[in-house]
Amino acid sequence: MRSHASRRRRTTTTLLAAGTALAATFTVAGCGSSGQGGTSADGTTTITFMETMAASTQKTTLEQLTSAFEKANPKIKVKLEVEPDYATLYAKETAAVSAGNAPTIGQVYPDWAATFAKSQVILPVSSFAGSSTPAQLSGFYAGVKNELYLPDGKLWLWPFNKSVEVMFDNPALLKAKGLSYPTTWDQFATVAQKVSGGGVTAISVDPGTASGPGAGTTWLETLDYAYGGAPFAKDGSPQFTAPTMVKALGYLAGLKKSGALALGTDYPGETALAAKKGAFDVSTSAGYYYEGQAVGGKFALGTQDLPAGPAGKANILTGTDLTMFASASKAQQNAAWKYMQYLTEPAQQATWAAGTGYLPVTAKALPDMSAYVSKNPWVTGAVSALQYAKSEPPYGWIEKSEGALAVAIQDVVDKGADPASALADAQRTAQAAKAAG
Amino acid sequence: MSQEATTTGSGASTPPERRGHGRAAVPPGKASAQARRGGAPGEDGAAGAAGAERAEATGPAEGSAHPDPADASEHPDAASSRTSADVAVSPDRPSPWVRGKRVRRVRRVRRVRESPMGWLYTAPALAVFAVFTIGPTAYTLYISFFHWNTLNAAMSRYIGLANYRSLLGHSTPSFLTGAWHSLYFTAGTVIGGTALSLALALLLQRGGRLMSASRVAIFAPYATPVVATSLAWVWIFNPQFGLADAVLKAAHLPQPLWLQSASWAMPSVIVYSLWHEVGFTVVLFLGGLAVISPELGEAARVDGATAWQEFWHVTWPQLRPVTAFVVIITSITSLQAFTQFYEMSQGGPVYATTTLSYLVYQEAFVFFDTGYGAALALVLFVVIAGFTLLQRRTTSRIAAAA
């Protein structure tokens, strides 16, 4: 009797579980089959573009360019899928691929692209462009072009929103103390110390955290380059214990010790600069409009090239590129490739750069943006940095390794740890990340 | 506070007819158990007398004529023994006819429980539970044995228990570091939250228009979304522009870096969490204070007890079940807390606020080391489940003692 009852219970449970699973399968399948985009009966091809141009002029400029593209190509519809930030973008792209519902194209950092390529979910440019050296490629700045290749030597990426590090400042504050913008990092330390005090901390940065390195970490890497080092070898091996990196982190510790540096979150440099409690903010050129909005006309905002180090001028290429996801149909690939090329044409690049603060990826755009450049002379210096700006090697463990650098900055600047010791910890974490692939 | 005072107070307030009822309804087997829980008033013997005394002390809720509904549902035979028919036939030993009736009733209940119709009625809830809880949990267990490729599951590699073995070896940070931070946060919110909410509840129970407004003010944060208010608190803790530093500066006190300091980041998150959560636990304590016997306190005051003695020996002992519930709920929510860490500190600085919940998110959804993240999630699940079971057992003991 007991065994019969329990068997009946088991049967009922099994049936219920099977029914539930079946219903769930149909539900999931139903969700997955919609929204793929493709070619409709009237021949219109819809492509989806997952991107992060969520606010300010970046959003309106991309919408304006996309609208103009659709007008010129009435059989192509571009659906912009906006994400609020890069962390969310990466999570959404990964989730979409995992669910079999990837966008047609998306913004990616090179190390994300390396992970995607390793999992065979994106396509090399040659597979949809019909050439491994498309016509526009030779016109891109050297730094921009170098970043488009993954370690297998293939062209996987197409440039989109590129920028370099610049220094925003409050020239009036410097002038009031008889100071001027420094040209070397050593001079910067002196000027920063002199301008600090009385409620002013020369510069505030957000190093980020282990799960998301911030602008402060990029600054540390730039300093490493300026001292003649490189945070990563070409094969992606971390070089955090190199003397140049130790010196760079020691430089930040020195600024903190002299009261010229504060760590913070949520764009602390921009906030402090706008509130006249800071004199500098190291950020990317794409922050130009945001900095201007924050300052709101309280003073004339200065935008400068980064000072030089013992090894000369150094900068890091920031921003993302575009990639094509492997699930796109042939029609979508063709339409998306047309859109990608359209965005990097000189006229569009001029509109894009003037509207957003990003830099044009080709020098051919400069004649179309002469009025903007004459109004913003810093653009010339920033654009020239595109020739020598470095990119981190594209491997999947780079972001996690940079997160370890962010922790080292906090450890040294906040807790007063020894730079060499903190960097040794970061090196171990980065090596473990590399070993895990 | 003496037991004498307790008994006196209760005896004066409990209606005699309620205390005297139910004697015959207790079958012999149930008597000893009921005596342990508070006793059947009027029962012969030492256990019964002691139980009666405790029953009077706790009022009519326990050990009185009203059977515990939980017991009734768990033991249908016990529940059925409390019918008037049983009392009429034999209070101590039911007749064969009564026993037969009881058996038939038990079988009928079992048939209902085992009927496929029962499954049909519960199917919607079961389906939701299976799809959104049991299924994902089982899948998480499965993933934890793989070096999982989120982008292309076909490229995942079975690695056995390697993810579990690496729990202690990881450096971003290790499982033990995350566990320590979780424990730190939980201790802060449980101890601080319980003490603070009890204190506030004692203050607010006095009533009056001002106190009513204060109740609303204290509860209001609980109704706000964590994601929004935690961002506001990030600015309150801002070392350059924040309100917290402005207040300390005005008072000529040292200003910590709050969320920017590895030492102060966790206390800062705890302060925010207490601000957000304490309204709920205050309401729980106010509910508890509303149902405790005021006569006991009066008796204590008549006997010359100070306010502290009255609280410590009379009020709080009666609030033990509520306190235990608050501790359990706060512990579980603290171990699961994530949003405030995500918004306020992102696990930093220097991993100072990387709790287990945040670590699971970081590994699974930032670094996409999904297999390792799944192993972490499973261990966290076991920790919370074990913690909950331990506390439930402790609570039962406390409730029994109270």
Automatic annotation (TrEMBL), chain A:
SUPFAM superfamilies: Periplasmic binding protein-like II. Gene3D superfamilies: Periplasmic binding protein-like II (3.40.190.10). It is found in: Cell envelope. Its main location: other. Keywords: Signal, Transport. Residues 1-23 form the signal peptide. This is Extracellular solute-binding protein. It comes from Streptantibioticus parmotrematis.
